[in-house]
Amino acid sequence: MTRPLAQFGVPGVGLLAVLGGAMMNLRARRATAQGEREADHGHDAAPTAIASKLPDELPRHRFGMRFLHWFNL
Hints:
The chain is mainly α. Helix content is 75%, strand content 0%. It is built from 3 helices and no strands. The chain has helices at residues 2-40, 47-52, 63-72. The radius of gyration is 19 Å and the shape is elongated. The two termini are 27 Å apart.
């Protein structure tokens, strides 16, 4: 009884986790690239200006990404 579950269920859940992680990664990259385009406006910034734009704290991942991290762990 557990053999069909192990043969089909476990790889299916693993595949869903990998695809979900890939989709979230692509979505985050797109949002980051869009934010950089809006902030850049085509000007070359000095290194000190770039350093002043760095956040004091890193943003926290949303629930889906945290879930995938814990799932992969």
